[in-house]
Amino acid sequence: MFQGLRTTISAALLSLALAGTATAQGGPPPRLDLTLTPRAEALDVRMRLPAPDLDAGEGLVRLPLSLVGIPSARYDGQALQARDDLGPIPLRQAEEPPTPQGTYRRWLVERPTRGDVIVSYSAPPRAVTAATNNGPLFDLRQESGGFIGAGVGFLAAPVAPGPWSVRLAWDLSEAPAGSRGAWTYGDGTVETVLPSQALAFSYYAGGPLGVFPADGDGGFHMYWLTKPPFDPAELADKTRRLYDHMSAFFGDPPGAPYRVFMRANPYDGVGGTALGRSFSFGYNPTDKPTVESLLSLVSHEVAHTWPSMAGEHGETAWYSEGMAEFYSLVLSWRAGVTPLDQVVETMNSRADTYYANPHIALTNAQAAEIFWSDPVAQTVPYGRGWMYLLQTDAEIRQASSGARSLDDIVKAIRKAQLAGAPYGVPLWLSLVGAEIGEDKAQAQFDAMAAGRRLSPPSGLYAPCLKVVPRQVRTFELGFPRAVLNEDRIVSGLVPDSAAAQAGLRDGDQITDVRDLNVARKDQGQTITLTVERDGAALTLTYLPRGQTVEAWGWARDAAAPDSACRF
Question: Shortest CA distance to 232 belongs to which of 221, 245, 218, 217?
Fold first, then answer.
């Protein structure tokens, strides 16, 4: 399950842009008009930039060719066009230096511009099948007569950072009857002040959308194009209750806007991706997900809205993902959304996944190197960060005799972030060191970053819960996970692995994979591969598990009353 990629906009930057009413020159932000038109085969985009006065060779707009492995609309050749008062503007494409996340393409003007510039293009939806790998929800999809996706998947945003006085309008003249348009920042025609980055890292949906609440009022909204196999209103209501509680905990003003976009996927697995003030999640209808089965996912994505740490992803993913894991469960319990039995079940599932991860001993830097290519490595900061935060919370509570907790640390870092102050690892170590001692804080952090196996603190949730020993088997696919990202030709098969014993051979071409995402979390879940060998199709089923390792989890203490349960 791909869950909770923290690709988001700096909250400080967004706050500055939303609050700003003037540019650095003292005037109002320049106006940017954006019109989106859903058509039968594509989503048409038209953007008017007010007199950018660009010289020949300067950048007009930019879009990633792909982002963390997810392809964008690209607009090769002459697919993207621009014109100004002098007529069509000749454009040249140039690629920016690549980053670990992907490579951006810029469109450069070949002559000076005069007057307003209009950029236009048709965004084709990405074609996906049952064989598509689950991943971040950035790509533009067509679904049930409408479109849904993140800006980085199709929207060529201005190179100039802004802020802009944005006016977003939807032209629904060719959309099905009853259609509507929704954006992270509002429904229908929206006027707001945002940087270019926020146009890219936000969600858009247009077509015959379902919406909760039905009247469209309030700060929280959830949207869908395909009627799901569960009650969307029930899931939306529980998500809203959780959001309201989290929003109050982190100090948001009442009624702060927040939007959730759901989509149906033709491939196995569920997953979500959080952006500024919104997130999107996907599911496979044939898996028949339930409201209960999705609550852990959506609560994780909601929790991503607030905890953030400055720094490279590989250095800080333990914080963003660990905090989302920690507070998605803790605040869900405090809000009365998740019952105790489900809390314990979720904790044990997360602990099992942490201890069974074959990459558990990688350093943070080593895990970051394969983060985008190996979904198993993607889970390292989730379990590691969560377990480390449990230990830190226990240390702070013990040192303060229960007067302080991790809550105080995360709120202090959030405050620094919103104030535009440094909020990276040094601030974390300083704050934690002030609670438990600098040497201990540094030693525990170093152990976590080095990939040392962590154990849950025995007294954190006592007497309600007690820590108990468990045994788990490591997840072992039997061949490198990268095989499933490329041509799906098996190579590097592990001798004597369950996959080899089931009959898999190097050179087999995998045409279908079933239950892989569930099997990563469920010790007893088999996976089924359909492979082609010598022109014949074979079906192989096996349990993707290796050696048995020691682990720990939690159990209810029968002698403790419910009133003793504190999270």
Answer: 221
- Average pLDDT on 326-355 reads 92
CA 186 to chain CA centroid, Å, is 20
Structure tokens at 350: 């997360």
Tell me what the mean pLDDT of segment 88-104 comes to: 93
* CB neighbour list of residue 561: distance below 8 Å, 6 or more residues apart: none
How far apart are the C-alpha atoms of 204 and 181, rounded to whole Å? Answer: 8
Distance of CA 394 to the CA centre of its chain: 28
Tokens 């002040």 found at:
193
Question: For the residues 38-54, what does the mean pLDDT come to?
Answer: 96
Query: Residue 371's pLDDT band (boundaries 50, 70, 90)?
Result: confident
Helix, coil or strand: residue 45 = strand
Strand bridging mode 271-275 / 2-6: parallel
Tokens 């503007």 found at? 89
Tell me if the bond preceding 463 is cis, omega within 30° of 0: yes
The rounded distance, in Å, linking the Cα atoms of 78 and 176 is: 29
Helices 291-303, 232-249: inter-axial angle, 10-degree rounding? 30
**Separation of alpha carbons 358 and 487, rounded Å:** 23
As a whole number of angstroms, the distance between CA 68 and CA 196 comes to 20
* Among 169-183, 262-276, 312-326, the least confident range: 262-276
CB atoms within 10 A of CB 100: 12
- Does the pLDDT value for residue 22 go beyond 50? no
Residue 515 has pLDDT above 90, yes or no: no
Residue 315 CB-density burial (10 A; 0-12 exposed, 13-18 middle, 19+ buried): middle
Cα distance between residue 441 and residue 437, in whole Å: 6
Q: What whole-number distance in Å separates Cα of residue 544 and Cα of residue 519?
A: 7
Is 267:283 a contact under the CB 8 Å cutoff? no
What would the 3-class secondary structure string for 218-285 be? Answer: CCEEEEECCCCCCCHHHHHHHHHHHHHHHHHHCCCCCCCCEEEEEEECCCCCCEEEEECCEEEEEECH
> End-to-end alpha-carbon separation of the chain, Å?
26
Rg over alpha carbons for the chain, rounded to the nearest Å, is 24
Whether 136 has a pLDDT exceeding 80, the answer reads yes
Q: Residue 410 is which amino acid?
A: V
302 in Cβ contact with 296 (< 8 Å): no
Given a contact cutoff of 8 angstroms between Cβ atoms, the answer to whether 70 and 153 are in contact is yes
The fraction of the chain above a pLDDT of 70, given in percent, is 95
